[in-house]
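Might I ask for a little of your time on a matter of protein folding? Here, with my thanks, is the record as I have it:
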Amino acid sequence: MNVERKQAHHQLDDASRQAAAQPWLDLEMHQLSPGHYQGACATLTLDGMHLVHEHQNQAVHKRGVTQGNLCALSIAKTVSPGMRFSQFLSPMDSWLYFLPKDAELDIRVMPASETFYLCLDQDSLLDGARILGQGNEVLRPEAPQAFNSKLTAGLMADFSALLHHRRPEGLLPLANCARLLRDSVVVALSQATAIDTGVCRSVRAGWRAQRLVSTARDYMDACLQVGQVPSITDMCATTGVSERTLQYAFRSTMQLTPVAYLRTLRLNRVRAELLIALPAHTTVTRVAMRWGFVHLGEFSQEYKHLFGQRPSETLAQRPD
């Protein structure tokens, strides 16, 4: 039996490049905390599944969706205060996170946090969970879920062994490695307890806050794509809430105000464009103004504070 296998280890100097190393996700990552970025991303594609171990030295916001019929199961190996998975504002080391296909991925990851995730066919996962659950429907593919499982540590050990062994087939034949991945996830979920979002007040509050922030973020994107920078008044009008409510939602999910988040988003968009631009064909001024920065001296200072280098240095990184 021929089993597809592709393995890679990336050392990355930018959040957008870390996102690009995971093409099975329609993913955007941007840096939230100031300083030079150092990230690492180990990936293993095996029989249509994608296994990933990643970490970085800066806080980042990850947002996107899976592609095709893929769902994702995530584990945070190390959880720091301020980390968030969707509506779960205070994740725990022992929790598993299920992201159904077509559901929005929305995660805030703190510096030095390590995460594993596996993307796999959702129908296959649901079928296995139903068989082991004997009619007890643990997974609900309508929205993200969190689970507490005593098998989390063992599942991470399986993930790590497959990702960081240069030739996983040296441990087991590739077909057996693929089966191990699927079976270990299904077994861990079959012995997991779902975190009840209807009972847990903090999760309900997190869900409302995350929905507000997501709506505001979609509006920010729409405005930026047509060259406009929305005001806080515009964002409140779009989300239908007061400034105080919107401020609370952003602070609880992003640890930033809406205005500070928008400015950070714009700076990341400038950086992503400068990293792929040809110096002979564009200028920092042109890119900065495209993302709404008019006061270029102030922009340059903020850019250097966030990324640890001047925008001209970023542009110069790519040769003509």
